[in-house]
Design brief:
It contains 11 helices and 19 strands. It is α/β, with parallel strands linked by helices. Strands 5-4-13-14-15-12-17-16 form an 8-stranded mixed sheet. A 6-stranded mixed sheet has the order 7-2-1-11-19-18. The radius of gyration is 21 Å and the shape is globular. The two termini are 25 Å apart. The model has no long low-confidence stretch (mean pLDDT 94). The structure holds flavin-adenine dinucleotide.
Length: 391
C-alpha cells in the first residue's frame, strides 16, 4: 500500500496498518519528516486510539494534562464557563485530555514506525500522477534529483493535506474554501509570561468577531497561543504560513481585556494562517473510490474550533487499518467499508466546528445570551460526549 503524505495523518495510517500486518510505503514530498511549530489538543477519543497503538507512556512523556477548559469573555475577562478535564476525562471517557506540541506528536509516531520497522518511509517524493491500471501506478517526482519514478501498488491512501493532489482521484477537484478567518499563532516561553498570568488550563477567550485559545505545551515550559480574527486575506493563499506582526493582530482584535493584551504582548513572534476548509462531507463517495482512500485534511479539512483535525485523521487511520484487515474483501470493498464507517462522523465534526466558530464570535445581545447560557450550563455545553466517547 502507498500512503501519500507523511504528516500526522499519513504516519498514523502507516503505523495503524503496520500494526495489523499491512506494510505501507509513505511518500513525503518534503526533505524531512517534520511539523511546523504549534500546539494541538488531543481529546480522549484521540488519546484512547494512541493508547491502543501502544503509545500511552510516550504520549504521557510529551503531553501536558490541563486541569480544566475555561471560557472567558475577551473584553470583561470574566469566567463564563468551565469544564474539568484531567481526572474527569479519565473517569468519564477512560483516557486523558492532553495538549501537545504537534512536532512532538509527529516525532512520536515517526519513532514508533522506525523502531518497529513497520513501514517504509521515503522523502523528497512528490506524487504527481496516479494511473489506475492493475496494479495501480503512482508516478513520483524525486525532488532531490529531478528524476521521475513509478511505483506499483494494489492500494493507495491520500493523506496529503488541505491542498491534496490525490483528492481529485476520488472527487471532482475544487479548491478548498476560504473562510475569511485568520489564525495568528505564537509559542511563548512560560518564563516570559508575567507570573500572575501563568496558568495550567486551556483558556478560551470569546469576543465579538474573535476568539483566543491558549494552553501550555512541552511540560508547561511554553504557552501556545492561537488568536482567530475575521479579516482581509493575504493574496497568496497557498502560502498558508506567513510571518505576522502584533500591530496587525491588535488592530484586527479591537478592544480586549488587559490580561489578554499582556499575554499577547509577551509573544516574541507571530505566524499567520488563513483558515480554509471544505463544506461538511455529503457521503462516503467523498472518502474513497476504487483502490484509493482519502484520510485527514485531504478528505475533510475543518475549522479548528473543535480542536479535532488531527484527531479525526488519527481516528480515520484506526478505521482504515480495521477495514484493511478484512481480507475476505477486495481492496475497493475494504476502502468502501472504511468510507462508510468514517464519513458521517467527520461531517458532524466539520459541521460542529463551523457552529462553534459562529458561537465564539457572537456580537451584541447574542453575545450576552451566550455568556449567560454558558454561566448557567457551562459544563454541559462545553462537554462533547458524542465526540469524546469515540466513534
Ligand atoms: C490554527 C489551527 C489549530 C489546530 N488545532 C488542532 C487541535 O487542537 N487538535 C487537532 O486535532 N487538530 C488541530 N488542527 C488541525 C490539524 O493541524 C490538521 O487537521 C492535521 O495536522 C492534518 O493532518 P494531515 O496529515 O491530514 O495533513 P498535513 O499535516 O497537511 O500533512 C500532509 C502531508 O502531505 C505532504 N504532501 C502534500 N502533497 C504531497 C504530494 N503531492 N506528494 C507527497 N507528499 C505530499 C505534506 O508535505 C505534508 O507532510 C489545527 C489546525 C489549525 C490550522
Amino acid at each position: 500500500m502507498i500512503i501519500v503524505g507523511g504528516g500526522i495523518g499519513g504516519l498514523a495510517a502507516a503505523l495503524a496498518c503496520g500494526l495489523v500486518g499491512a506494510r505501507a510505503h509513505v511518500l513525503e514530498r518534503a526533505a524531512n519528516f517534520s511539523e511546523v511549530g504549534a500546539g494541538i489538543q488531543l481529546s480522549p477519543n484521540v488519546t484512547r486510539t494512541l493508547h491502543a497503538w501502544g503509545l500511552a507512556e510516550e504520549l504521557k512523556g510529551i503531553g501536558f494534562a490541563p486541569r480544566k477548559l475555561e471560557a472567558k469573555d475577551a473584553q470583561t475577562g470574566l469566567v463564563i464557563g468551565s469544564l474539568p478535564l484531567g481526572q474527569r476525562s479519565q473517569e468519564i471517557y477512560g483516557a486523558p485530555y492532553f495538549t501537545v506540541h504537534r512536532a512532538d506528536l509527529h516525532r512520536l509516531l515517526l519513532q514508533k514506525i522506525k523502531r518497529s520497522g513497520l513501514a517504509d518511509l521515503s522523502l523528497h517524493c512528490q506524487v504527481d500522477e496516479v494511473i489506475e491500471l492493475d496494479p495501480m501506478q503512482v508516478s513520483v517526482l524525486q525532488l532531490a534529483t529531478g528524476v521521475r519514478e513509478v511505483f506499483e501498488t494494489d492500494a493507495m491512501v491520500g493523506a496529503d493535506g488541505l491542498w491534496s493532489a490525490t483528492r481529485q482521484m476520488v472527487v471532482p477537484s475544487t479548491p478548498p474554501r476560504v473562510t475569511g478567518l485568520l489564525a495568528y499563532r505564537a509559542l511563548v516561553p512560560m518564563q516570559s509570561i508575567p507570573e500572575k498570568l501563568r496558568f495550567k488550563d486551556v483558556n478560551v477567550w470569546l469576543g465579538p468577531r474573535l476568539h483566543a485559545v491558549l494552553y501550555p505545551v512541552q511540560g508547561g515550559d511554553f504557552l501556545n497561543m492561537v488568536i482567530v480574527v475575521q479579516g482581509p486575506l493575504p493574496s497568496a493563499m497557498e502560502e498558508w504560513d506567513h510571518a505576522a506582526n502584533k500591530q496587525d493582530l491588535e488592530a484586527a482584535m479591537g478592544p480586549a481585556h488587559p490580561h489578554l493584551k499582556e499575554l499577547i504582548g509577551a509573544a516574541p513572534a507571530w505566524r499567520l494562517w488563513p483558515l480554509c476548509d471544505r463544506a461538511p462531507m455529503q457521503g462516503p463517495h467523498e472518502m474513497a473510490k476504487g483502490r484509493i482512500a482519502l484520510l485527514g485534511d485531504a478528505a475533510h479539512p475543518m475549522r479548528p474550533f473543535l480542536a479535532q483535525g488531527a484527531g479525526m485523521a488519527i481516528e480515520d487511520a484506526a478505521e482504515l487499518a480495521k477495514s484493511w484487515s478484512r481480507k475476505d474483501m477486495s481492496v475497493a470493498d475494504r476502502w468502501n467499508a472504511y468510507a462508510h464507517a468514517r464519513w458521517a462522523r467527520n461531517a458532524q465534526v466539520q459541521q460542529r466546528s463551523i457552529r462553534n466558530g459562529q458561537i465564539f464570535h457572537l456580537t451584541g445581545p447574542m453575545r450576552w445570551g451566550r455568556n449567560w447560557a454558558m454561566k448557567l450550563f457551562g459544563e454541559t455545553l462545553m462537554d462533547s460526549p458524542w465526540l469524546y466517547a469515540g466513534p
